[in-house]
Write a structure and sequence with these properties.
The complex is a heterotrimer of chains A (about 325), B (about 350) and C (about 280).
Chain A: H1 2-31, H2 37-48, H3 53-67, H4 73-86, H5 100-135, H6 140-152, H7 157-171, H8 191-227, H9 231-238, H10 243-280, H11 286-296, H12 299-327, H13 329-332
Chain B: E1 4-19, E2 22-37, E3 41-45, H1 52-59, E4 67-78, E5 81-84, H2 90-96, E6 101-104, H3 118-130, H4 134-147, H5 164-176, E7 182-186, H6 194-211, E8 214-218, H7 222-228, E9 231-236, E10 239-245, H8 246-251, H9 256-263, H10 302-306, E11 312-315, E12 318-320
Parallel strand pairs in B: 3-8, 3-9, 6-7, 7-8
Antiparallel strand pairs in B: 1-2, 1-4, 4-5, 9-10, 10-12, 11-12
Chain C: H1 2-11, H2 13-30, H3 66-102, H4 104-119, H5 122-133, H6 139-149, H7 152-166, H8 169-176, H9 181-217, H10 228-237, H11 240-243, H12 247-274, H13 278-284
Helix pairs in contact in C: 1-2, 2-3, 2-12, 3-4, 3-6, 3-7, 3-9, 3-10, 4-7, 7-9, 8-9, 9-10, 9-12, 10-12
The chains are: A mainly alpha (about 325), B alpha/beta (about 350), C mainly alpha (about 280).
Chain lengths: ~325, ~350, ~280
């Protein structure tokens, strides 16, 4: 049991450290920026509607206070943490005066759903097929699947997404290539909306699955081809243990342990991939929001999206880490 | 003499490898003839890389590429189930596994699935051959564990939670629970400390007597052979060089290599300098001509360098492959140790 | 060294293909040195011409010959990937060897930092840097930033090897002979991790060029410098696929996929040659 508590404590410390460093990095990097958020904001607001000079002066004061730009950097930093904890990072510019946090929270479910579903599909599919390929090394079908995985694995997210966009946007236009749902349906819990969401998610999810599949497949295949030479597998085979039991409970079960560690380690990369894929397919998630915010120089929103991304990814890694002891009795031991 | 349960004739098994364009052939088992009687413990001794492990793999039908069976036969005469491993198909071999022929693999640390409870492993291994399930199966296992002085709680444990000795007893339990007629034990005690080793050996011996199974017991440790084996065979460079009743092998070895193995045993109160054996075991990819032991043999003469000696019978049950066997004398005075318990 | 290379080419089909692809790409990029045109100039040729005997890869909507444009683009991208790989190798060797050899709390704290770097999503961070630097984010700055994020996986791998080396006989001899830690690491241990460094080098180039393409396509780099990514950026911004200038998109993508496949095959096959169990160790460390 103590081992388990130790493990949890270490992972929790990592969670805190990642959030602390990631969010701090986001804060300090943005503060290197020559952009003055207050003036940018004022410029944008006054270009959209006309305000009296008095209103503008008032707004300037509010914004200065809001962004805390008149304070020394360190106290701004302290303020920033306080604001992050209460979930208020000031108004966004691209949809002024909607709070940046509100936009983030609207985009979050799209990204989380896309990421979770595609990661699950990729992980299960890649490990299952990779495991079988490692066990049946001379099977022609699995061999050709291996070639496919090798050629897909190195291609970056952007290129795969872009190829799919060309294929399904121009060559064979059967799937929607842009947006999160059709304009003709009303958002809510109704069948047309749900179907439309699923339909729109196919291509983004497919591109994430295609890229991710290769590395899980190849990784699992390599792991399994090593594990089949382990003594406990040989011994079970010599004892005439049923083949399905050997493949499932002896080989794959053991190979899954490092793969779960791998899952935690790749979540950051997968998130980056999601950001890119969203941008390509104009998907209304965090990635598109972040890119819009950068283009518009939306200081508060950039900071909000990147901080929340760091927190979300670190949290997801922590959750996956919690799964690890369930799979490996050597950590769970009492 | 006819009651042999295992008869091996002219067995050859080579490792054939191709590594980046270079062909290697390692003659790990190169023409072995021997047999094992029902209910007997046959000890196999030899240095590491002498081919003894490969030999056991062949006997256990556990050969995988690059190890290949080149020629010869391995005949088991199981009750109602005679089989020749050289010609049997996979299904026939499946049918004898664990029910008739079981195996205790080298390295008790790594032969148990680290993420599976011992109880589940017992189910995987024995439920089918015993044709038992649920309560009845569990009772049978618990009774068997009791015989091995293991508490029923080990069924709930994971391998890493057990001590080395317990783990070894678990593997012995796995190998014996179906009451096989033949057990192959490959270095079952090597990784254990001396006290535990003795305990495990006694247990193995007891359970073997109780079930009347034949055992091939492989270890490089001659003192273990002195304790458990009825007969001992010595393997050197892929050949059987001598075999005979244990007592005779120790007191009157008829091969210079055996004489050295016996002489290297530590004995209480003996402070004399031990004659050391020079050189290394030969490279089995390029074995020396003639008798393979000649480069290290103190008795070697010209003939040994040219002609390989045949395995000839020198006294009842005792065979040796040496041109000068009659001149081999024990290197130390009288082999059997005092503490030998038979 | 030479015989190893010879063996690999002869008996490892993956290595042979990878080497072939990469040689082709490097020669192609090398042609930029003899280019008759300046890649930064626009409207030097008739725009939107399909591939022909005169313009092998056609011309783009900005009046540039795509063949020569792409030679520069690949040269810049390869140099970029090379820079990132060199810099991040230096960090991962230093961290990995130290962590593995010294052990104890040094190891624990270095690996803790390592894990933090693994967990931080890189893409948002790179976007933040663009937010700060804007169009000043040239290849070299980007390479420096990416090198800071490209080391943790490989540092862990090197660490696991270094941990094994620590208990070898020759290390103990060196310690008894009074060699300093730094000397042991760089003179005794470095040669052993060199093969891993070679294989991870390829992987790292793959990773960094991939990111460069992604950032550039979104317009998050210096778009006036021809790289694989900026070629695609301009193609996108001129809606090349929509207006039918397909060669502007398809040819670069084919070349990019060739590059990635080549680098990946080289990495995988050398890795396999060195140690078939490497993946297991990388994960289980």
């Amino acid at each position: 049991m103590t081992d388990y508590i130790w493990f949890l404590a270490k992972r929790a410390a990592l969670l805190v450290a990642v959030i602390f460093f990631g969010v701090s990095a986001a804060f300090f990097i943005t503060h290197l920026s020559p952009i003055d958020p207050v003036e940018t904001a004022l410029g944008r607001i006054s270009s959209q509607a006309s305000f009296s000079p008095q209103a503008i002066a008032e707004m300037r004061q509010t914004l200065t206070e809001l962004y805390g730009t008149d304070a020394p950097v360190l106290s701004q930093y302290g303020n920033f943490w306080r604001r992050l904890l209460v979930g208020d990072l000031g108004p966004s510019l691209i949809a002024f005066p909607t709070p940046a946090m509100t936009l983030v929270m609207q985009a979050m479910p799209w990204t989380v759903a896309l990421l979770v579903i595609s990661t699950l599909i990729t992980f299960v599919l890649g490990n299952l097929l990779g495991g079988l390929a490692g066990y049946n090394q001379n099977n022609a079908l699995f061999k050709s699947l291996g070639m496919l995985a090798i050629s897909l694995q190195p291609i970056p997210y952007y290129v795969v997404a872009f190829i799919l966009l060309i294929l399904f946007g121009f060559v064979w236009p059967v799937l929607p290539i842009s947006g999160g749902y059709a304009m003709t349906v009303t958002p809510g819990l109704n069948l047309p909306f749900v179907l439309s969401v699923l339909n729109h998610a196919i291509l983004p999810a497919l591109s994430l699955v295609l890229v991710g599949f290769g590395s899980w497949f190849l990784g699992m295949r390599a792991l399994v081809s090593n594990i089949v030479t382990e003594d406990y597998v040989t011994y079970a085979e010599l004892a005439g243990v049923r083949k399905s039991t050997i493949v499932g409970s002896y080989v794959m079960r053991n190979a899954l342990i490092p793969q779960i560690t791998g899952l935690a380690m790749t979540l950051g990369t997968v998130f980056s991939g999601t950001v890119i894929t969203e941008e390509v397919f104009n998907y209304p998630g965090l990635g598109s929001l972040l890119i819009d915010a950068v283009f518009e120089g939306d200081y508060a929103l950039v900071l909000a999206v990147s901080s929340i991304s760091v927190v979300a990814v670190a949290g997801a890694i922590f959750v996956v880490d919690l799964l690890y002891p369930l799979l490996d009795p050597r950590i769970r031991s009492e | 003499m006819t009651d042999d349960i295992l008869k091996v004739s002219d067995l050859k098994a080579y490792y054939q490898m191709n590594y980046y364009g270079n062909n290697f052939e390692v003659r790990a088992v190169d023409g072995i003839d021997m047999s094992v009687r029902r209910g007997e413990v046959y000890g196999i001794a030899g240095e590491s890389s002498s081919g003894k492990s490969s030999f056991v793999k062949v006997l256990a039908a556990a050969i995988r590429p690059p190890l290949r069976l080149v020629s010869g036969s391995v005949r088991y005469d199981f009750a109602g189930h005679p089989i020749d491993l050289a010609t049997a198909d996979a299904r026939d071999i499946e049918a004898i596994r664990w029910k008739h022929l079981s195996y205790i693999m080298q390295g008790s640390m790594s032969v148990l699935n680290p993420v599976r409870r011992i109880g589940r492993t017992f189910e995987d291994f024995a439920s089918r051959p015993l044709n038992l399930r649920g309560r009845a199966f569990r009772d049978r296992i618990v009774a068997h564990l009791e015989r091995l002085k293991l508490p029923a709680e080990v069924l709930q444990a994971y391998p890493h939670e057990l001590s080395g000795g317990m783990r070894q007893r678990v593997t012995i339990g796995l190998a014996t629970v179906c009451h096989p007629e033949f057990i192959l034990a490959d270095e079952p005690t090597t990784a254990l400390d001396v006290v535990v080793q003795k305990e495990v050996l006694k247990l193995l011996r007891d359970i073997q007597k109780e079930m009347g199974a034949a055992v091939i017991f492989v270890t490089h440790d001659m003192s273990v052979h002195a304790n458990v084996a009825d007969r001992v065979g010595i393997i050197y460079a892929g050949n059987l060089v001598e075999e005979g009743p244990t007592r005779e092998m120790f007191s009157a070895p008829k091969h210079p290599y055996t004489a050295h193995l016996v002489a290297s045993l530590p004995r209480i109160g003996d402070t004399a300098q031990r004659p050391a054996l020079d050189g290394r075991p030969p490279n089995l990819a390029k074995p020396p001509p003639g008798c393979r032991f000649h480069p290290r043999c103190p008795l070697a003469v010209e003939r040994c360098r040219r002609e390989a000696p045949p395995l000839e019978t020198v006294s009842p049950d005792h065979r040796t492959a040496c041109w000068r066997w009659s001149e081999v004398a024990p290197l130390v005075d009288h082999g059997m140790r005092q503490e030998v318990v038979r | 060294m030479f015989t190893v290379l010879h063996d690999l080419v002869r008996y490892n089909i993956e290595f042979a293909i990878g080497l072939g692809l990469m040689t082709a790409i490097v020669i192609f990029a090398g042609l930029s040195f003899v280019s008759p045109v300046d890649p930064t100039m626009v409207y030097l040729a008739i725009p939107d011409q399909p591939p022909s005997a005169e313009n092998w890869f056609g011309t783009n909507s900005r009046g540039q010959d795509l063949f020569w444009q792409l030679t520069f683009a690949f040269r810049n991208s390869l140099v970029f990937g090379f820079t990132v790989a060199i810099l991040s190798r230096i960090i991962s060797i230093a961290v990995g060897l130290t962590s593995g050899y010294v052990g104890g709390w040094v190891d624990r704290s270095l690996m803790f930092v390592n894990d933090i770097f693994v967990a931080i999503p890189i893409f948002p961070v790179l976007v933040l840097f663009y937010f700060v630097f804007r169009d000043d984010l040239d290849s070299f700055r980007l390479a420096l930033i990416m090198a800071c994020f490209g080391w943790p996986f490989d540092a862990r791998l090197i660490r696991s090897v270094a941990m094994g080396l620590k208990h070898r006989e020759f290390t103990r001899h060196a310690v008894f002979a009074g060699m300093s830690t730094r000397k042991i690491l760089f003179e005794e241990h470095l040669p052993y991790v060199m093969p891993i460094i070679f294989s991870t080098f390829m992987n790292n180039m793959l990773w960094s060029i991939g990111f460069e393409v992604t950032l550039a396509v979104l317009g998050f780099t210096d778009i006036n410098e021809p790289t694989v990514g900026t070629v695609l950026y301009w193609a996108n911004s001129h809606s090349a696929m929509v207006v039918g200038v397909w060669w502007w998109v398809v040819i670069p993508i084919i070349l990019v996929v060739m590059t990635f496949l080549g680098l990946f095959l080289l990495a995988v096959s050398t890795n396999e040659y060195i140690d078939p169990r490497s993946r297991l160790r990388r994960m289980g460390a």
